[in-house]
Amino acid sequence: MLRPVSIKEERHPGPAEDARRVLAHFHSSLAAAGADIAEVRRQYAARYRPLIAELDEGGAVTFVPAENDRPALAVIRPAAPDGGPLPALVFFHGGGWTFGDLDVYEPFCRRLANATGCAVVWVEYRLAPEHPFPAPLTDVRTAYRWIIDNAWGLGLDAGRIGVVGDEAGGNLAAVLCLAERDERGGRLPWVQVLLCPSLDMSACMNSHKMFASGYGLDAQTHSWYRHNYAPDAVKPCLWRLSPLFAHDVKRLPPAVILYAGYDILRDEAEAYANRLEDADVPLRRLYFPDMIHGFVTMGRAIAAADTAIHRIAAALRGLVEPRSSGGVLRLVR
Question: What's CA 292's distance to the chain center, in Å?
Answer without folding.
Answer: 15
